[in-house]
Specification:
FrsA_esterase, signal, Dienelactone hydrolase domain-containing protein, 9 helices
Length: 345
């Protein structure tokens, strides 16, 4: 029989060896600056972490890279270069539906999908109860760096890359119709050709006065009729402002649907701690010129501090979310039709 202390020592050595083996891939992870080698699976790449959308638009953010990752899913039987979609998650982080529904839909269309994780690399689980953990500008930056990365992949058509996002990620689609956001990261002509925002918060519209320079991508918004987290109605006002200034927008409203209606897991839940702007006035934020206005009247705030003070008073907690199988399927058909037009599929 082996002495007790020897068995204990062997167990300790084995544990150390296992820990080293587990940590080795993480230490050896490759950070990709381009995809010329055609990697698959989890792909680590660098982004940046702006503290505000003003920093992003004016390139005043810390240039120190932040390493994040995405999962690249290619359609089967790929022949030639294929279109691609960047998928931007919401405040709950990556969910099963991002792959179960949307990766499946895109791959069946012959479109690659790149699911970007904006939270894990920054040590964040979710932001539902505290959105201040990470500026939404970081989600914008991540999508743009993903665009740059995918544009280098010989399997992907760099002229046909789009973006789809959900809630927090849905507002990424709204921001990226503006050239000022695109140029916060992109130096060349790389640009999204289609943008889709599911149930974004339209209470704050990032825009410019006078008429902004647009990136050229059409925008689709998908909103739930009963959404009490990011209500549908402000999205109509936002769309009207965008259309007035030449931005192509289509808004789909899904009857009886709540926030996260496209989830593939049947559920309905109340989240008491989640913060919402549903009781706040709708505003237009022109960060390029540092001006802030009420919508739809157009009254100008004397300062960003005045607007912030008003918003601190109107933020509330408690929201509902739940899946709607019928409306989720309907949204698939609407996305397919939108992308078929935008990408020439």
């Amino acid at each position: 029989m082996r002495p007790l202390f020897e068995s204990s020592l062997l167990r300790q050595l084995l544990a150390i060896s296992l820990a080293a083996a587990i940590s080795l891939p993480a230490l050896a992870q490759e950070i990709y600056n381009d995809l010329a080698s055609r990697p698959s699976g989890r792909i680590y790449f660098n982004s940046v972490t702006p503290k505000s959308k003003w920093e992003l638009v004016h390139r005043k953010y810390d240039p120190k890279p932040t390493t994040i990752w995405g999962m690249l899913y290619l359609p089967e039987n790929v022949q030639g270069r294929v279109p691609a979609m960047v998928i931007s998650h919401g405040s709950a982080g990556i969910q099963d539906k991002d792959t179960d529904r949307w990766v499946r839909v895109f791959n069946q269309m012959g479109v690659a999908a790149f699911v970007v994780d904006s939270f894990s690399g920054r040590g964040i689980a979710n932001t539902m109860d505290n959105q201040s953990q990470l500026s939404p500008a970081a989600n914008d930056a991540d999508a743009l760096f993903a665009l740059k990365l995918l544009s280098t992949d010989p399997r992907i058509d760099p002229q046909r890359i789009g973006q789809i996002g959900f809630s927090r990620g849905g507002h990424v689609a709204m921001d990226l119709v503006l050239e000022s956001f695109r140029k916060g990261v992109i130096d060349d002509d790389a640009r999204f050709v289609a943008l889709i925002g599911f149930y974004p918060s339209c209470t704050q519209l990032w825009w410019e006065v006078p008429q902004p320079s647009l990136s050229g991508a059409p925008l689709m918004l998908a909103v739930g009729e009963k959404d009490d987290y990011t209500p549908a109605q402000p999205c109509f006002s936002a769309a009207d402002t965008m259309k007035r200034d030449g931005q192509p927008v289509v808004v789909h409203v899904y009857p009886g649907a709540y926030h996260d209606f496209d989830n593939t897991r049947a559920y309905f839940k109340y989240f008491p701690g989640a913060t919402t702007l549903r009781d706040c006035p709708q505003v237009l934020l022109d960060v390029r010129h540092d001006r802030y206005y009420r919508l739809p009247g157009g009254e100008k705030y004397p300062s960003v501090q005045a607007m912030d003070a008003e918003y601190k008073r109107c933020i509330s907690r408690g929201v509902s979310a739940g899946a709607s199988p019928e409306q989720g399927k309907k949204s698939e058909a609407d996305v397919k039709a939108f992308l078929s037009r935008a990408m020439g599929l």
